[in-house]
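Annex B, item 7. Sequence and structure tokens for protein A, then protein B.
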Amino acid sequence: MAIRVVCGANSQELDFAGRTVSDTREYLRQSLNIPREARVLVTGRAVGDDYVIQDGEQVEFVRESG
């Protein structure tokens, strides 16, 4: 099923439900320009790389700045 993945101004809707955050990060690292140090928010809450993404969730890779 579909999830939305966001990194900065880049986003994609993908059929990645059931994958871990780590798998998603590796698969999309180049196409979404995801920094290695980016934190991960799933539907607004911080999760670890082993979190399994569920259908309909939004995964956001966030780099701290400032």
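Protein B:
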Amino acid sequence: MTAFNSRLREVLDELETARKRLLNSVDSLSQDDLDFSPSTDQWSIGEILHHLQLTEESTVRVLQKLADRAEKSGLGPDLAAGSILQSLDRFNIESAADKIISPPSVTP
């Protein structure tokens, strides 16, 4: 496995772990629970899960194209940087205050 692929594997393994935790957290919900929306301008849990699925599929397609292009052009990870899993932590996405309207391609 190339260094480039090992970095991708690290990220994919982390995403798989997070996906399993998310699905386990909603596993006991009924269909009514999943379909419940607190208001007309808010998504239900089911819609949020569908949005996450669509977003993940779209992101994977884009990242695959970019990774293929990078590898073909000889680019690779900075091996001196260590793990890349915490590289996005500085963006603090958990505290995003502004509501973002989802594009139609990832709207449930």
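Comment on protein B: DSSP finds three helices and no strands in the chain.
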